[in-house]
Amino acid sequence: MVILALGACSNGEKPFSYRGLSMALPFQTFCDSLAARGFAVDSTKTDAAFTRVVMAHPTEKFRLMLAQQNGQLIALQENYQISTNDSTRQLWLQLRDDFEKELGSWPNMPKHGDDHKVAKFETAGGFITLTLENTYTPTLQVLYEKKKEQRDYHK
């Protein structure tokens, strides 16, 4: 662990994390860490191979969907359960502003309407995408995706 921490510090980049929890952890360790924070696996929505896991917390307004490949977390998505379009708009704006401050960058905004907004942030280790879709049922999602490892074929 110390070697990983030193390696992350030596290049000056912060590791890609979800609410302070490193997304470089092995998948089971990441799930166990979320469980220690009060999240529980929803077995009715989790697939049998444990490739996609859904977790919920009794006091959070969102469910987590985690995707893994070969024992490593590759993506995590917060799916918010909010009942009104105005509430989702306010929360989307608050989350976007929070990410701008935390990451120190402006997002790419491929969609910027009243009822459909997308903000994409790029970090050193991955991408964070906020998606708002207010139609018949308001939905708000925050997707964290790790960057695929770059291989140097010229060595």
In short:
Helix content is 25%, strand content 36%.
Could you give the topology of this structure?
Elements: H1 2-10, E1 17-18, E2 21-22, H2 27-36, E3 40-41, E4 52-56, E5 62-69, E6 72-80, H3 85-103, E7 108-112, E8 116-122, E9 126-133, E10 139-146
Antiparallel strand pairs: 1-2, 3-4, 4-5, 5-6, 6-10, 7-8, 8-9, 9-10
Strand content: 35-45%
Q: Averaging pLDDT over every residue, what do you get?
A: 86
Order of strands, main sheet, comes to: 3-4-5-6-10-9-8-7
Say how many strands there are: 10
Distance between the termini: 27 Å
Radius of gyration: 17 Å
Number of helices: 3
* Poorly predicted sequence stretches spanning 5 or more consecutive residues: 1-11, 150-155
| Main pleated sheet | 8 strands, antiparallel
Secondary-structure element string: HEEHEEEEHEEEE
